[in-house]
Structure formats: C-alpha cells, structure tokens
Design a protein that fits this description.
single chain, 529 residues, alpha/beta, Aldehyde Dehydrogenase, Chain A, domain 1, Aldehyde Dehydrogenase, Chain A, domain 2, 2 domains, seven-stranded mixed beta sheet, five-stranded mixed beta sheet, 14 helices
C-alpha cells in the first residue's frame, strides 16, 4: 500500500524526502499491518510550525462561539465514524471493541470535546479579573502559537493527539494543534484528523488549525518541542522519553506538560482486610488488569501491615492473578519492558509470588504477576522498588506497623494517585490520618476505599501530580476547564482604554453568564452592578 499522507498547512500531502517509513503491528497476532507511514523531516516539521503560527494569529480574530462550533461539529463527526474508528483501533491496539472502545472510550472522547466547547463558549475559564480602582485588567488567553500534542499508545481515543483531552483543551483555549501521532495507532489518528479537518473547513477556521505528522527522528522531535514558533507541548508517555523532551524544551524556555510514570500506591489498613479481604483482592486484580495493566493509573504498588490477615491476602491475590488469562499488550516492546522492570525489582529484594515470565499467547503478553518485599527492604532501596512495570504487575510491600506504612509513604516518588482502604466502622481514623498526612503531598488524586483506574471527566478531576508522575504538580490533563490553563498565557492590560479591551474585560459581561472577579468579588454582572 502507498505511503500515507501528512496533513500540513491545510492540505493532505505526500511526505517530502522522508527519513524513513514504518508499518504498525497487530499486537494480537504479531502480524505487520499493510499501511506505511512516513518519518517526517526537519523541513516538513518547520513547514507545519510556520503554518501553525499563521493559524494561531488568525484564530485570535475568531470568536469563542466559532471555536465551540468546531469542537461540537468534530464530536458529531467522530460519532458518525464510530465503526471505522473502533475497527481501526482494535486492529492497531488489540483493545476490545466492547465495552472498552465503542461504549467506553469513544463516548468519553466526544464528551470531552463538547465540554471543551461549553467552556470556550462560557468564557469563565479565562478567569477575568477587573480592578476598576487601578484600571488594571487581566485574563487568560491563547498562546499565539501552535500547541504540539504527543499522545500515548494506551488510549487511542481519549488521549489521541488529534482528538483527545490535550487536543480539546488546546483548541478550546484558542490554539491550533500539531498532532504527532502515536506510532502504535496511526490509522486511528488519521481518521480523527480527517474528521477534524473536515470540521475545520465547514466552520471556516484557519486551514492549519489541525495538522498531523506521524513520526520524527529524535533530533527532529527535540527541535519540534523547542522551536521558537511553538507555543507549548502536551506529552503523555514513558519517563525516559518525556525527560529528554523536557530537557530540550526547558533549554529553549518552551512550556511542556508531561504525564510520565506512576505506580499509584494503595495502602490497605488492617481493619479493611479483616472486613473484606476477598473483595479487596478481587478489586485490586480488576483494577490492575484493566487494559492488560496498561493504564497510567494502574495500582502497581500495595502496602499492607503484617498480621494474621496479610498472608491470607497475598495468597488470595496470587490465586486470582494466577487463574486469570493475561491480556494482550500494546506493542512488541511490552513484554521485554516488563521483564526489565521485574529484573530491577528482584535485584532490589522483591520476590515473585506468581507470574514473572512472558506468557505463551498468540499476541504480545506477559503473565499476571505479583511480587512481595518487606517494608524494611523497601526503605533501603525505595527508588528501584518503585520501578514501573507497565502491565498486570503489582508489588506488595509488607510493613510491621502503621508507623512503618507511613514511612513507606514518605519515601514515595510523586504519583498520579494514592488510595487508602479503611474500616467501614471508622475506627481507624487515627491510622488513616497518619498515612494520609504524608500521602496527600505525594499524589495528585487521593482516593478512599476505591481503586484508581476510573478517571472521571469532570471539572474537579486532577489527572496530574508531583514529579515524576508529571512534569509540573500544578496542572491536570483531565478536567475541563482547568486542563485548558496549560495552553494559555496570562494577558494583563494596564490603563488600556475601555473600548480597546477584550470583550471579557469590558464593563459589560459579554455572555451575561461569564464569571469574572470584579473589584475582589466574583460576579456574573456588569461593572457597577
């Protein structure tokens, strides 16, 4: 099959002077897929950046209403292409069509776009502040440059670089997007980009509002995130790649928002195991095995206290892991990555309870694995014993006391989530407080009596956390409108004449509903009312 085109400057083009081509593989069969994709050159990427800068300048003249129309039309077009998208993603990732792709991830993706449209139309997200005494006004606004989005392989819809949460947030904030497809699901991303481009044309937005490339060499990727014409980058992927991109962007002073690595600790207090040991073991397996363990919120690190229930819990958990068939991993590198992670864990003192080897399956798979280690050993080598194994793998840390559990929490790296399972009687509030007081500062989202894999797309959600879970603890990748602030700049106006101010900062509320801070008070009214 011929080489697939890239979308640059408002046209689907045959790639120029590519530095190579590649094909994807069906992870369920290990067979190569027929479509070939180009590796874009430095010149091609520069062309996309120039077109993106031009689009950014033009977008500043478009109303939030027009941007909202685009997002809503795009959501509708995604739903019209449901079968094509589901079939493509299933072939490229082996994720099940039902319920994962068709009933779960695709509706979430369309919903994110509609929520972004609502936020753009409402305008409250820009947090307008009007100080009439000093005649100083400010609000968040577009960056005036394209946003690069690099999506992960584990969410081909909801985090897709041409349709997912980062895309929606960047567009809603008024920025064009250069989507760098994840090379595990290029066909899926191309379908999204085609639908988005059609929506761009039908709503009259600048042609380069959405652009698409598939792969670059590492040096071109570093150039992309650090280029003078780029506004910011949103990246979701592994820590090693993320930190290299961050180094390049930081050196150039360019914002980059990373979601990278998290073992998502689960602390189970003794009272919880006494009450519902088997239920918690079942919940833990269900969460850990979701998507074959390839969720960024996978609970890969569990802390319990040694008592009469702890060994029973480990045995029960091991039995469940052993008796269930392993899921298909997303790529050929998946099994080896888990092998490498387990080697590090074992060298640091962890012992295999069940699993620990590549599974004998038609597709890429690794046996469901439970390891254990004492808290004493963990505290001697906390870094290596927090190595992320991206699969159905969980390490059980056995502590001698609540105080030692809290000490384990104190030695954790930053994580997306942290969970505490507690007694339903409420008689362990003191123990909860000892751990929560430490854990709260180690995670973005704290959960009680709940596994972490469900990420609700609501304004209050934080899908972020301290390093190395992300590159910045103050931002979230899920939860509009807050996720939009990553791709916005704070614009301040000092003594600017009223009629020259943006609508959001003029005396009259532009929507009649937009929330603004007027002389220290939140208001939906006009100045002076």
């Amino acid at each position: 099959m011929s080489l697939q085109p890239v979308l640059i400057a408002g046209k689907w083009l045959e790639a120029k002077n590519t530095t190579g081509t590649f094909n994807m593989t069906n992870p369920a069969t290990k067979s190569k897929l027929p479509e070939s994709y180009p590796v874009s050159t430095k010149e091609e990427v520069h062309e996309a950046l120039e077109a993106g800068k031009k689009a950014a300048d033009e977008l500043r003249t478009f109303s939030p209403e027009k941007i909202a129309e685009f997002l809503e039309l795009f959501a509708k077009k995604i739903e019209e292409h449901t079968e094509e998208l589901v079939n493509a993603a299933n072939l490229e990732t082996a994720l099940p069509k039902e319920p994962r792709l068709r009933s779960g991830e695709l509706p979430r993706t369309a919903n994110q776009l509609r929520l972004a449209a609502e936020a753009a139309r409402d305008r409250s997200w820009c947090m307008a502040v009007l100080d009439t005494k000093t005649n100083i006004h400010s609000k968040f606004g577009a960056l005036g440059a394209p946003v690069v989005v690099m999506g992960p392989n584990n969410f081909p819809f909801a985090f897709n670089s041409a349709a997912g949460g980062d895309f929606a947030a960047a567009i809603a904030a008024g920025n064009p997007v250069i989507a760098k497809a994840n090379t595990s699901h290029c066909r899926t991303t191309k379908i999204f980009a085609e639908a988005a481009f059609n929506a761009v044309n039908e709503t009259g937005l600048p042609p380069a509002t959405v652009q698409l490339i598939y792969r670059t060499s590492p040096d071109v990727g570093f150039m992309l995130v650090s280029h003078p014409l780029v506004g910011a980058t949103g990246f979701t992927g592994g820590r090693q790649s993320g930190l290299k991109l961050k180094k390049a962007a930081d050196k150039a002073g360019k914002p980059i928002y990373l979601e990278m690595s998290s073992v998502n600790p689960v602390f189970i207090l003794p009272g919880a195991l006494t009450e519902r040991l088997q239920d918690i073991a079942t919940e833990l397996y269900g969460s850990c095995s979701l998507g074959a363990g390839q969720f960024c919120t996978n609970p890969g690190f569990v802390v319990i206290q040694r008592d009469e229930k702890s060994e029973a819990f480990i045995n029960s958990l091991g039995k469940i892991f052993r008796e269930n068939k392993p899921g298909i991993l997303l790529s050929s590198s998946g099994p080896q990555n888990i092998v490498d992670a387990i080697k590090v864990l074992k060298k640091a003192g962890a012992e295999i309870v069940v699993g620990g080897k590549e599974a004998n399956e038609a597709g890429y798979a690794f046996s469901n694995t439970v390891l254990r280690v004492s808290a004493e050993n963990f505290l001697k080598n906390p870094r290596d014993l927090q190595t992320e194994a991206f699969g159905t793998v969980s390490l059980i840390v056995v502590a001698e006391s609540i105080e030692q559990m809290a000490e384990v929490a104190n030695n954790l790296e930053g994580n997306l989530t942290g969970s505490l399972y507690t007694s339903t009687k409420g008689d362990d509030d003191s123990d909860y407080s000892k751990i929560e007081n430490v854990l709260r500062l180690k995670v973005g989202r704290l959960l009680n009596d709940k596994m972490p894999t469900g990420v609700a797309v609501v304004p209050s959600m934080n899908h972020g956390g301290p390093f190395p879970a992300t590159g910045h603890p103050g931002f979230t990748a899920v939860g509009i409108p807050r996720s939009m602030l990553r791709f916005a700049a704070l614009h301040c106006y000092d003594n600017v004449r009223p009629h020259r101010l943006p609508e959001e900062l003029q005396d009259k509320n532009p929507t009649g509903k937009m929330w603004r801070m007027i002389d220290g008070q939140w208001s939906q009214g006009n100045v002076g009312i």
